[in-house]
Amino acid sequence: xxxxxxxxxxxxxxxxxxxxxxxxxxxxxxxxxxxxxxxxxxxxxxxxxxxxxxxxxxxxxxxxxxxxxxxxxxxxxxxxxxxxxxxxxxxxxxxxxxxxxxxxxxxxxxxxxxxxxxxxxxxxxxxxxxxxxxxxxxxxxxxxxxxxxxxxxxxxxxxxxxxxxxxxxxxxxxxxxxxxxxxxxxxxxxxxxxxxxxxxxxxxxxxxxxxxxxxxxxxxxxxxxxxxxxxxxxxxxxx
Length: 239
Ligand SMILES: C[S@@+](CC[C@H](N)C(=O)[O-])C[C@H]1O[C@@H](n2cnc3c(N)ncnc32)[C@H](O)[C@@H]1O
Hints:
Elements (H helix, E strand, L loop, with lengths): L1 H12 L6 H18 L4 H6 L3 H10 L4 H20 L9 H10 L5 E5 L5 H9 L4 E5 L3 H13 L6 E4 L13 E4 L6 H11 L5 E5 L10 E4 L7 E6 L6
Parallel strand pairs: 1-2, 1-4, 2-3, 4-5
Antiparallel strand pairs: 5-7, 6-7
Helix pairs in contact: 1-2, 2-4, 5-8, 6-7
The site of S-adenosylmethionine has 23 residues, from helix 7.
C-alpha cells in the first residue's frame, strides 16, 4: 500500500513516462515519508525508498518483467507470515539449539511452532536423538526447503515435518513447545499454551517475551538479536 500510494501521489506531480527518473525519486521519498508516518523507523523506513527506483533501474537494464513476478512469488513462498502474521523468517542460532537440547527431558516430545527452513529441528535431532520433534511450517517455500534438508540429512526418524499452521493443532500431546516468532503473536501463543498444554509442559521462546508473564527461567544467549531463551511452565506444572 505504501509503494502504491507513493507511486500514485508522485504521478500527481511528475509524469512517469516523460520524467521516469524524477518520478521514481519522488515516489521513493514519499514512500519513506509514508513509512515514517506509519511509525516505521531506521532501516525499515529507509528501505521503503528503494523498490520504485530499483524497479526503474532494472527495467532500464533490460531485466524482463517476469523476474519481478518470480521475485514476488518467492517472497510470498518464504515470507507470507511476515505479511500475514508479522512473523518474518529468521533462524535460531547454533547456541540456541544447544541450550534447547540441554533443557529437554529424556524422550521428550517437542513441538517446534514455525519451523522455517528446518535447520533448528535437524540440529536438535542430531544433538538429541531421543527427542521426538514435530516441526510445523505453513510458508510453503520454507516448508519445501525444510523437507529438502531433511532428505539430504538422511530422513531422521525423530523429525516429523508438517505443512500446517501451529494454531490449528492441539498442543496437548507435547512435553515442550519451542517458538521463535516475534512480539506480535506472543500473547496468543501464551493463551493457547495455557489452554492446551499438559501439566508440567514447557513453553520455550527464543528472545520474545510474553507481556505480563514472567518466565520461570531465562538462559542468556550471546547473539545481538537472539538474546535469551525464556522458559515457562504452566501453573499446574512443577517449576
Ligand atoms: C523466526 S522463524 C523461526 C524458524 C525456526 N523455528 C528457527 O528457530 O530457526 C518463524 C517461522 O514461523 C513461521 N510461522 C509463522 N506463523 C506460523 C503459523 N501460524 N504456522 C506455521 N508456521 C508459522 C514463519 O513462516 C517462519 O518460518
